[in-house]
Amino acid sequence: MRKITVLLIFRVSLCWGQTITDTIQFMHYNLLNYRNITNYCTSSNNSPTDKDDYMKTIVGYLMPDVITVNEMVGDGGTGANRLLTNALNQDGRNFYKQANYSANSSLSNMLYYNKNKFRLLQQFKIDRALNKTQLVRQIDVYTLYYLDNSELELGDTNYLTIYVAHLKAGNTSSDVSERARATESIMDYHSINYKSNHSYIISGDFNTYTSNEQGFINLVGDPNTSIRFKDPIKKSGSWNNNSSFASIHTQSTRVSSSCHSGGGLDDRFDFVLCGQEIISNERGYGYVSGSYEALGNDGRHFNANLNSGSNSSVPVDVLDALYRMSDHLPVSMQLKVNRTTAHSVNLVKDNYLIMNNPVRDLLTWRMQLPMTGYLSILDIHGKCVVQEKIEPTNYWNYINLSTISKGLYTITVSSEGHQIIRKKLVKL
Predict the structure, then answer these.
(1) Is the separation of the CB atoms in 392 and 366 below 8 Å?
(2) In the chain, N or C terminus with fewer CB closer than 10 Å?
(3) CATH number for the domain formed by residue range(s) 351-427
(4) Which residues contact 175 (CB under 8 A, 6 or more apart)?
(5) Are 277 and 205 in contact (CB under 8 A)?
């Protein structure tokens, strides 16, 4: 007698609401020539071992979920991994991951994130202006998605795209022009690649002296009001050497200079700017009012050493680490992940496979029965564009489809050389 296997196929429509509540701690920090030895930042006044300890203390105090940094040594990624291992994942912490290394200079950017809360969806770089001319420093673009299994089962999550920039230093007309050219390039890219289901941040050392500088205006005054960035604390003005802004200055931590720049706290160089959608909490990430700060700045050390006299804004060991680590202070803020979601979606389900369909950036799938084999995604010409190995587990699996074109695809599941499932997939 011939044995016949019947696959029972049906569709399930699900509709429900869910409230997600979480607080994300965000931090940006210029690390001051981390592992980059120069004639003025030497192995003695810029010791990597010492800086690892300082960073360990700072991170242990603030416990950020997302960390963006400037002035990471451009060494192919060794320095980035060292900071991850020797500073971030220390003292019982083992949840930080880093983005992929990408740099075109001796000083690079990097992003680290809490893997219990986020995954890295994709990353890009902006190293040229729209006219193809080379920028002094590249701008890195990272997209994270919030990790919540009940959301991901539906292929739905909160996307956070972060631009990390280290703009040209100096106050000459050429320096000012180069900063403007860089931020113009950012906004050109932002305009072309803007997605209405993403939230946006730009963080970095902007090296700007006033909000009237064109490089800053490009970010906050773009003609397209929907893509403009906002200063969460709304502190525009002439920041340089102005005591009116003493509480938000981020540079310098000391008066005398060596490896560190001197002059005391008198510049607002470091920023975290948010898209309007974050300020108004339109897409799941909302700025927590009052959470923005230059860590360690108590507002009473204008043109002075950070640790001069009394400064009780942070514990003594943290204050010492901030003073020694860099001539910049970290900028931190909190984001609330808080939304009620109402879902009405179709899950394609059979005896073996559950997945979200249609899909945007993230395909979420799970095999109902333990098995081995392959899940393949084919384009309309039958060419395989994605293939994933199926392991004998019952876990949810995620495939980044952001890089493939919109349209109709076919998903197949094969086991022991036999195709057992064939489905249509719509990519939105």
Answers:
(1) no
(2) N
(3) 2.60.40.1930
(4) 168, 169, 207
(5) no
**Domain residues of the chain, as ranges?**
17-338, 351-427
| Helix, strand or coil, per DSSP, at residue 50 | helix
Of 332, 393, 323, the C-alpha closest to 59 is 332
Tell me phi and psi for residue 71, to 5 degrees.
60, 45
pTM: 0.81
Q: How would DSSP label each residue in 388-403?
A: EEEPS----EEEE-TT
Rounded to whole angstroms, what are the CA distances from 251 to 10, 219, 314, 326? 61, 21, 17, 9
Which element (helix H / strand E) includes 149? helix 149-152
What is residue 342's predicted lDDT score, i.e. its pLDDT? 43
pLDDT in tens, 301-355: 999 999 999 999 999 999 999 999 999 999 999 999 975 544 444 444 455 788 8
Tokens of 136: 């002094």
Q: Tell me: the pLDDT tens digits for 27-77?
A: 999 999 999 999 999 999 999 999 999 999 999 999 999 999 999 999 989
Residues 99 and 121: their CA atoms lie apart, in Å, by 10
And the tokens for 27? Answer: 């931090």
Domain 17-338 belongs to what topology?
Deoxyribonuclease I; Chain A (3.60.10)
Residues 6 or more apart in contact with residue 98 via CB below 8 angstroms: 80, 81, 84, 110, 111, 112, 113
Whether residue 72 contacts residue 140, with contact meaning beta carbons closer than 8 Å, is answered with no
Q: Between the CA of residue 321 and those of 59, 119, 307, what are the distances in Å? A: 10, 29, 10
Per-residue tokens: 373: 């084999």
